[in-house]
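Render TIGR04076 family protein in 3D.
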Amino acid sequence: MKFLKEGQEFIVNPWVGLPSGFCPWAWDDIYKSLVGFAADGNFGEWYEDKNIIIACCTDGTRPVYFKIEKLVD
């Protein structure tokens, strides 16, 4: 079963929940990173840009990586 396609973009608020069309298993895997990031968690020691992080789905046979960017004014 394929939920996501390369290049898809989602604008989400992790406090609201799973966005339409998003793989629920991947959401479960990246949710902790999303909430920490949304709550102004600092991942700066691992990333050059403080408004971008990378998270991944733990499916070992079909791994998916997510580039997560904060929308800032």
